[in-house]
Structure formats: C-alpha cells, structure tokens
Write a structure and sequence with these properties.
By secondary structure, the chain is of the alpha+beta class. It has one domain: OB fold (Dihydrolipoamide Acetyltransferase, E2P) (Beta Barrel). GO terms for molecular function: endonuclease activity; hydrolase activity.
Length: about 150
C-alpha cells in the first residue's frame, strides 16, 4: 500500500461502534481487513494499520485444510470492496484483530452465513452462543460443507 493510498483511509483513535467501512482485504474465511485505520493502543502491533476483523463466534478452516479456499471465496464474494458494518464490543485478539460480527449490505450476518453453509464451525472455546450452536447442528444434520466429509 502506497503512502498516498494510506492517506485516503479514515484514521481514528476512537473506534466507532458499530464500525462501517469498506472491505479491502480477505485474509481467510473468518478474517477481513477494512479501509479504516485504528491507532488506539488496543490494536497492539496492528496499531496504525488497517483494522482486521476476526469473526466472532466462528472458526473457518485454516490454509491447507478442506474447504479453506471455499470459505475464503465465500467471504470474498459476499463482502470484498463492499461497505460492511461491524458489531463489536471493542475486544481485540492477541494478533491485534478486532473481534466482531460482520453485517453485510443486505442486512445478513456473514458469521452466521458461514456456519449455516458448513464453511465454519461454532467456536465453542470462545463463544457460548446458543444461536451459533444451533446453526452448526443444523449444518451437521444437512451434511453441508465441512460436515459432508465427516
């Protein structure tokens, strides 16, 4: 990213909630990068860089695992170069990523869509959401995505 491009990105030490910004990068199925620079301390080593969002409640397959590319592609098709809304509690993970739910322009929640399609699991280690648990059970029963190879 050039200095010129960085100057075009909104920058703030305050984190709006909800945060609305354009998606400028897709790391994988459950991590995206926004056209918004947060320079608050909570961002850790990502301070002063475009905000990365780690999808709350879910975990999608890692690189090299079955359905990794499909989950990443699904996320990309839904939100790349679009303005999304991030609902969050201001919590960051140890990698400086803001934890949140991604609301797409059509109002649907991308985190939930990924679980519904079997492209992510309910991340029970960090979430006790009954809704996400039920979405996962439903996808398992239907043998969708990652549940098709069990």
């Amino acid at each position: 990213m050039t200095e010129r491009e960085k100057q075009d990105i909104p920058k703030s030490s305050n984190l709006p909630n909800p945060l609305k910004a354009e998606v400028i990068g897709i790391q994988d199925g459950d991590t995206i990068e926004l056209k918004f620079i947060f320079d608050g301390k909570k961002a850790g080593f990502r301070q002063g860089k475009p905000v990365r969002i780690r999808f709350l409640h879910i975990n999608s397959p890692e690189r090299g695992k079955p359905f990794y590319k499909i989950a990443k592609q699904y996320t990309s098709e839904r939100c790349f170069r679009k303005i999304v809304t991030i609902k969050h509690t201001g919590e960051f993970d140890r990698y400086g990523r803001l934890l949140g739910e991604v609301i797409l322009p059509n109002g649907s929640v991308l985190n939930k869509e990924l679980v519904k399609k079997g492209l992510a699991i309910h991340f029970k280690k960090y979430s006790n959401s009954i809704e996400y648990a039920n979405l996962e059970i439903d996808a398992q029963k239907k043998k969708l995505g990652i549940w098709s190879i069990q």
